[in-house]
Amino acid sequence: QAKSAGRNTARFFDPVMQAAAAAHDESVRDLRRGFAGQEFVLQYQVQVDNNGEITGAEALVRWNHPERGLVAPLEFIPLAEETGIILPLGQWVLETACNQLHQWSLQPLTANWSMAVNVSALQFTQANFVEHVSYALKKTGVNPRKLKLELTESMLIDDIEDIIDKMNHLKKQGVSFSLDDFGTGYSSLSNLKQLPLDQLKIDQSFVQDIMSDPSDAIIARAIIVLGHSLGLKVIAEGVETQEQRDFLMVIGCVAFQGNYFGKPLFAHELNMQTDPGDAAASSI
Ligand code: C2E
Ligand code: MG
Ligand code: MG
Ligand code: MG
């Protein structure tokens, strides 16, 4: 017992670990403060079809931090998941995105746009996840067919039957599902067979060097063939150049997202792009 107490004491007084623990606590406090202070905002990145027409957008959360400015999700989502803050934050994202979707549905140029929303594993495993999504849909009155939930392969290592059950409940309401970052996670092809998915999203890491790395090109093409053979839609993310878009079209891709078409923007910035009264955006 003395030995373990000694070990604990040594650990407690390790200045490096103590500093790390204090910094972690401070980050958690800051995240809670930020959520309570409504500092989170959504940007939207358009998705386009093979004619270049916008079909919808993906909602991407940012933390508008008073000192740090706009903070990217990868810098706070892991902590939000670790602390459970992702639950209220994720629900806020869902409701805010649905609200925006409702706004779009009221305007001619955006009336048919869909909305993709990222869902974290912790959110999905909550017993009341289906009810939470239904609530967001009812509250905003949007057509559930316009809502697409993005799952990642990392969440598929949990109870697959429970995941399928929840997906089916939501699919009955019209909600669709996309498997994000496809090809980088743990998913086995049998998961792909079992899950009631609607879309695969080719991870941007395969798109990035698609023009120079033959392996990436082969993998991207295999994903497209696999997806289409299984009756799924396939979208490529992280498309940055016309060459990448053209190449992806040649290998059969008909849906795209990436900075080539538009960076993630605030809703009012998107409106400027699509407002028919805006001379700069008008094609007439
Ligand atoms: P993701 O869902 O795979 O989103 C795509 C990421 O790629 C976004 O990064 C987007 O800004 C970036 N991206 C888009 N086009 C390009 C491009 O042409 N080139 C490059 N280099 N990057 C591009 P972002 O916004 O930093 O988001 C990172 C990740 O954070 C997302 O990856 C998603 O997994 C997660 N995330 C974002 N919003 C939420 C959210 O509301 N909830 C949850 N749980 N996760 C979220
Ligand atoms: Mg995504
Ligand atoms: Mg992705
Ligand atoms: Mg990604």
UniProtKB/TrEMBL annotation:
<protein>
    <submittedName>
        <fullName>EAL domain-containing protein</fullName>
    </submittedName>
</protein>
<feature type="domain" description="EAL">
    <location>
        <begin position="24"/>
        <end position="278"/>
    </location>
</feature>
